[in-house]
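A.,

Following up on our hallway conversation. Structure tokens first:
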């Protein structure tokens, strides 16, 4: 939006705190290369447009706002003469992403501005204040580099924590598979031996065929076994043990639990007894016991290797190593992979409740970075609950909130202290001792959610009920625009909009 051109007055410029120390020659150059414009109520410039001008308020009221999702969030409103906005970082060049406005500015009443083209502003800064430009460049890029180093350090700490948890989770099923494989080798050797004994025994061909048929049906029954309650299991083990004792089979107390685990009962044993002669019954029972143990061990190996495969897939889903950075993603898959990766850190004393709305659609997002947000929020919730003894409940809820997808993390920890609630999204802020945890990570999380996904990150807290809520747009908009680290922020005397 263009304003109405007006006469530039050097004396008026001199009354502004920004220009009061300039010489007459410098003021003359500003008037010569700049201009005064009056704007009627409405927009002056819009976020995302090329940052072409540096604005200094002479008279009126300005409002700065940032676009968050579908809403414009007001960040500053002032009528103070001399406040500035626009391309005020133009002197930093392209390295500072100074090419576009990162906020919108409007006026609420007829307002006059001194307007300086961005190139001219960059030139006068370098010509008049070369040392200050160097100092400002050092401050700007130094702070940015420090932030990147801190972010990288936090990611490495998080990776170390996740790697330790993943190693622990992988070790359990891998060790179970090794034990089951060793036991299976022994059972298969015993089965071969018992088969030789049976073959040398006095079995009628028809009885042997029936026994083989029972073996096949036994293997099928193992796969169909229905879990029993502890009381039902105890009763059935007693009944099977009594049956084995009554038929003179030794070590009934060892055989009965195996048969019951496979879903076999006394009716099945009666079928076996009716098939073979009494003198060979014990050999047949033990041979079938090897069959049952073999099937159970193979089930255990399958469960263990499936668990390993699930963990590997979760790690791949979490890291998004083989995925495009920007894609349409199911947030429930991302949440599940993060919770699985952090299961070792969460521990058995914290209950995890998933309250998912599975009807929610997939959304356009950067899944790898959203997983980092989930990690930070879950890690903080677990740390908070650990402060109160390590017991608690973490509830992860998804829902539709008007035109956005809501992801809520609720914990039963002590809550966020009132004195730090205004600071938890500040860069570098953490409540943890040096070297412990990944840091709050809320500054990073906020930038990922708000700047990169054009969503929102809010929280509410009281003892026993702390909730962090992430809202993400459902439809592809500007979610794939590269992240911009800087935004509209208040200066010491001015509303400042980084560009």
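Then the amino acids I'd put at each of the 499 positions:
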């Amino acid at each position: 939006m263009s304003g109405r051109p007006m006469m530039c007055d050097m004396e008026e410029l001199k009354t502004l705190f920004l220009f009061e120390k300039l010489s007459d020659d410098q003021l003359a150059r500003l008037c010569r290369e700049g201009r005064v414009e009056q704007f009627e109520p409405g927009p002056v410039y819009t976020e995302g447009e090329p940052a072409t001008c540096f604005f200094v308020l002479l008279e009126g009221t300005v409002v700065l706002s940032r676009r968050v999702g579908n809403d414009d969030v007001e960040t500053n409103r002032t009528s103070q003469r001399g406040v500035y906005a626009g391309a005020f970082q133009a002197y930093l060049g392209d390295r500072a992403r100074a090419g576009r406005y990162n906020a919108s500015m409007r006026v609420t009443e007829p307002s006059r501005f001194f307007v300086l083209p961005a190139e001219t502003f960059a030139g006068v800064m370098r010509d008049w204040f070369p040392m200050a430009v160097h100092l400002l460049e050092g401050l700007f890029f130094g702070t940015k580099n420090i932030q990147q180093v801190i972010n990288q350090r936090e990611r490495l700490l998080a990776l170390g924590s996740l790697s330790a948890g993943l190693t622990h989770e992988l070790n359990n099923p891998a060790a179970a598979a090794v034990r089951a494989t060793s036991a299976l080798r022994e059972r298969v050797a015993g089965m071969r031996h018992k088969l030789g004994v049976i073959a040398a025994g006095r079995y009628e061909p028809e009885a042997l065929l029936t026994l083989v048929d029972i073996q096949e049906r036994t293997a099928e029954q193992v796969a169909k076994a229905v879990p029993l309650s502890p009381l039902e299991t105890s009763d059935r083990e007693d009944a099977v043990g009594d049956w084995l004792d009554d038929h003179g089979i030794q070590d009934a107390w060892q055989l009965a639990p195996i048969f019951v685990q496979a879903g076999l009962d006394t009716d099945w044993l009666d079928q076996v007894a009716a098939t073979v002669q009494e003198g060979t019954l014990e050999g047949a029972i033990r041979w079938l016991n090897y069959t049952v143990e073999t099937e159970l061990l193979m089930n255990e190996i399958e469960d263990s290797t499936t668990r390993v495969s699930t963990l590997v897939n979760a790690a791949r889903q979490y890291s998004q190593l083989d995925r495009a950075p920007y894609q349409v993603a199911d947030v429930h898959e991302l949440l599940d992979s993060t919770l699985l990766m952090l299961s070792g850190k969460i521990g058995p004393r914290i209950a995890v409740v998933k309250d998912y709305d599975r009807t929610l659609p997939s959304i356009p997002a950067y899944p790898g970075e959203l997983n980092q947000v989930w990690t930070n929020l879950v890690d903080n919730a677990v740390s908070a609950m650990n402060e109160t003894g390590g017991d608690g409940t973490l509830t992860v809820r998804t829902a539709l909130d008007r035109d956005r997808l809501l992801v809520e993390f609720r914990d039963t920890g002590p809550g966020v202290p009132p004195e730090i609630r205004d600071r938890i999204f500040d860069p570098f802020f953490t409540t943890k001792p040096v070297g412990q945890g990944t840091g709050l990570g809320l500054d990073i999380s906020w930038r990922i959610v708000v700047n990169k996904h054009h969503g929102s990150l809010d929280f509410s807290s009281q003892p026993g009920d702390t909730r962090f809520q992430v809202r993400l747009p459902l439809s592809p908009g500007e979610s794939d625009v590269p992240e911009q680290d800087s935004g509209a922020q208040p200066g010491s005397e001015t509303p400042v909009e980084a560009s």
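The chain is about 50% helix and 20% strand. Curious whether your intuition agrees with the design.

B.
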